[in-house]
Amino acid sequence: MYVVIEGIDTAGKSTQLELLKKKLPTAIFTKEPGGTPLGIKLRAMALDGEAKSKIAEMFLFMADRAEHIEEVIKKYKNNTIISDRSMLSGIAYASTLSIDELINLNLIATNNTLPTHVILLELAPDELKFRLSQKENDSIELRGIEYLINIQNRMKETIKRLNLNHIIIDASLKIEEIEKEIEDFIND
Ligand SMILES: Nc1ncnc2c1ncn2[C@@H]1O[C@H](COP(=O)(O)OP(=O)(O)OP(=O)(O)O)[C@@H](O)[C@H]1O
Ligand SMILES: Cc1cn([C@H]2C[C@H](O)[C@@H](COP(=O)(O)O)O2)c(=O)[nH]c1=O
């Protein structure tokens, strides 16, 4: 089982992953970007905002993804894998290119490996604004509310186009309510 937890910045992914770690002690927990030794370097390069070209930035994330699929997802394919982000983020955040172009590129990077379960935490604009105001923002978060809501819409559209097994959860529900929805979806 290859489960991915998705959502725009501050949607509550890390909060839910911490709860899942306690419930699934034998599962492999991983993340994109930065789930491998090479990925840690690529993550720093992608997030420091140095890339002037949006295409260069996208390829940094794609290189991370290709390494992650090879070194983690395929290697541990007989285990339960829970990943913080996936190619869905790759397709959604690279918003200067079309979803169709990005699906093709990402299927190359992932060698056609798709998640078996997608959990999308969906944030309303007001809640996103509040949560971003509560933290120091990185170069991507500084792009603002409108940018991030567009990314969230692209995530939903990509899930539809790839016909992925998924659940969309209102990220403003109580933490325990979200936890229960995730548990039911994974165990179904
Ligand atoms: N259900 C919730 N209701 C209210 N606040 C929440 C909820 N879940 C998480 N939060 C809060 O929202 C903030 C962002 O949560 P978290 O770090 O889990 O998000 P994230 O999706 O991992 O973010 P990022 O992608 O930016 O790392 C934290 O302050 C967290 O305590
Ligand atoms: C995989 C991926 C991620 N991003 C963005 C999304 C976030 O702003 C950061 C990752 O940080 P987090 O701690 O996981 O929230 O990078 C992106 O732009 N493109 C991607 O492919």
Automatic annotation (TrEMBL):
BP-aspect Gene Ontology terms: dTDP biosynthetic process; dTTP biosynthetic process; dUDP biosynthetic process
Known catalytic reactions: dTMP + ATP = dTDP + ADP
One Pfam assignment: Thymidylate_kin
Record-linked SUPFAM superfamilies: P-loop containing nucleoside triphosphate hydrolases
PANTHER family linked to this entry: THYMIDYLATE KINASE (PTHR10344), UMP-CMP KINASE 2, MITOCHONDRIAL (PTHR10344:SF4)
Family membership noted in the UniProt record: Belongs to the thymidylate kinase family.
HAMAP family to which the protein is assigned, alphabetical: Thymidylate_kinase
Function in brief: Phosphorylation of dTMP to form dTDP in both de novo and salvage pathways of dTTP synthesis.
Protein name: Thymidylate kinase
Originating organism: Arcobacter venerupis
